[in-house]
Write a structure and sequence with these properties.
By secondary structure, the chain is α+β, with helices and mostly antiparallel strands. Helices cover 27% and strands 28% of the residues.
Length: 268
């Protein structure tokens, strides 16, 4: 990235601090990326991938000289992304990306050494009875999320199917193609969530929204969160629009109940 002279500053999951391009080789863009998402699955031959988001450098930061200043210039919300994408390495090598309009999928054709457009203008189905979450963490979940998952399993006309790979890129790719919902909630152990905002949640949220889905933290759109730290984390719920809306009814119901309990207590 730095050698291309298009990049101004890099933020990586593998680096504690931002990396600034040398003077004279600075471009106009900020790139934040997770170079190997799902790396714990490599030995099991499970699909892994890379995720990235690209922002434009604001004019006031074009003369930064310190790492602290470079980090400050990265602190932009996802709504300011100019492009986002992910590559997935599995039975095929896929590249899924958006430059702000449609979401397109490319596939590596090894026989000619080229990446070919294989699916243009991907659209997420508005609903599908599939949910994706690590149920091993159930004991740590907040009550509203436990109630939501219980509803999917026991209170719908037909039980939802559980599909969880444990590699975000693979789970998200399936969700885009088939529909459903992918969840990585905050809980009693990970109070702020586990997925990183700048190089996991925000880039994937842009792709999901541009494909017609929704991506939220539980308190609003992921794309509207302005980071304050390079490695900031957030809860993630994304996928088919109707499925995300259903999830939010459980969150809103709990918030309403808590507000009513607070009002009752204050009157005593």
């Amino acid at each position: 990235c730095l050698a291309s002279e298009k990049c101004f500053v890099l933020g990586s999951e593998e680096e504690e601090s931002a990396i600034v391009a040398d003077q004279g080789r600075r471009g106009a863009y900020i790139i934040c990326f997770d170079p190997l998402d799902g790396s714990s699955n490599i030995d099991a031959n499970v699909s892994v991938g890379s995720i990235w988001g690209i922002w434009k450098v604001k004019d006031k930061y074009k003369n930064v000289t310190t790492v602290e200043e470079a980090t400050a210039c990265i602190m932009q919300p996802g709504v300011d992304l100019v492009s986002a994408g992910y590559a997935m390495y599995g039975s095929a090598t896929n590249l899924v990306m958006t430059v702000g309009n449609s979401v397109d999928c490319f596939t590596l054709d090894a026989s000619i050494g080229e990446i070919i457009l294989t699916q243009a203008n991907l659209r997420i189905p508005p609903r599908r009875p599939i949910y994706s979450v690590n149920e091993g963490n159930e004991r740590l979940w907040h009550p509203w999320f436990k109630n939501y998952i219980k509803h999917l399993k026991y209170n719908t006309r037909k039980p939802y199917s559980l599909r969880y790979i444990g590699s975000m890129v693979a789970d998200v790719h399936r969700t885009i193609l088939y529909g459903g919902i992918f969840c990585y909630p905050n809980d009693a152990k990970t109070i702020n969530g586990k997925l990183r905002l700048l190089y996991e949640a925000a880039p994937i949220a842009l792709i999901i929204e541009k494909a017609g889905g929704k991506a939220v933290t539980g308190d609003g759109r992921i794309l509207e969160v302005t980071p304050t730290k390079l490695h900031q984390r957030c809860p993630v719920y994304l996928g088919s629009s109707d499925e995300v809306d259903l999830l939010m009814t459980f969150k809103n119901k709990e918030e309403k109940r808590a507000a009513e309990d607070k009002n009752t207590t204050s009157k005593l």
